[in-house]
Amino acid sequence: xxxxxxxxxxxxxxxxxxxxxxxxxxxxxxxxxxxxxxxxxxxxxxxxxxxxxxxxxxxxxxxxxxxxxxxxxxxxxxxxxxxxxxxxxxxxxxxxxxxxxxxxxxxxxxxxxxxxxxxxxxxxxxxxxxxxxxxxxxxxxxxxxxxxxxxxxxxxxxxxxxxxxxxxxxxxxxxxxxxxxxxxxxxxxxxxxxxxxxxxxxxxxxxxxxxxxxxxxxxxx
Length: 221
Fold this sequence. Notes:
Elements: H1 14-22, E1 30-35, E2 40-47, E3 50-57, E4 61-64, E5 77-79, E6 92-96, E7 106-110, H2 113-128, E8 142-143, H3 147-155, E9 171-177, E10 187-194, E11 199-203, H4 210-220
């Protein structure tokens, strides 16, 4: 994931700590990221008064305590250095990390995170002799963060680099409902305000108006 491997010492250079904490990619102005398990990502960046959209790809990954559930791949499972993760084109690869047996000492990655999960579930079902439907059933063996976190950690990018608080176009909204239980209540009012002085209220006096104001809110945002 990261281009720097921490040395076996407590004396970690300050610049390395800064990069691990604040990211190493210099891309400025990122205000939002959306990523998917298939390795596609969308990045929104502020450039002055406008926001631009960039479409990118990344290599989905997760941590594992064992390679047993990938044994059925045979020679199709390849080894890859972690600092070359984004350049890796193999279907599924792994890299051993430092750690004792039983720890999350393998970094697994794939061109498509969905394919990686399906392959692991197939191997686990064969190993355990029962159907395994989700990696959550194997939480002792695998650790995975969400696709957005995977993308940011792999690329070393961070939100809001080079932006002051005043540079951001901020918006907040508040929903008023007839009950807290969504099966019993509905949205009847939405108040909206942003940092540029815009303010409005969307109302749904009748139950059939709820869908309309949700659409209006999405269009407004």
